[in-house]
Here is the input.
Amino acid sequence: MKDESHAIFVAPDHKIVLRSFYRDQIWKPARALNEDLSSSTAWFSAFELIYDYEDELYFSDGQKYPLPDLAEEFVDVSNRWMRNFLEANDGGTEPKHYSNKIERLRIIELYCRLIKQEGELT
Here is the structure.
């Protein structure tokens, strides 16, 4: 592994599937950012930020994270999946649906964390 002080660890599968992690670390931050990224296609473009960190992304075991091709991961150009992902239940406090698209969820969590980190640096 490269310089560990610059390593960014991606969320492991076993955390992504936990409803509390999904809700609090993926869904809620994404909903908050959705105010700035008001369209599904804007999200797709925003995800490209992750490529700026490609050399710093690792799994917790030190293995390099192979960043997927976003166009292959989010195959629907209009990104309707993202719109559905962001929907809330009737109470507005929980996701309406829980997705099992682990890699998409990992990308969303990573993007939300990186954008927050960048905001803290400015």
Q: What stands out?
A: The chain has one domain: 4-121. The radius of gyration is 14 Å. DSSP finds six helices and two strands in the chain. Strands lie at 8-9, 57-58.
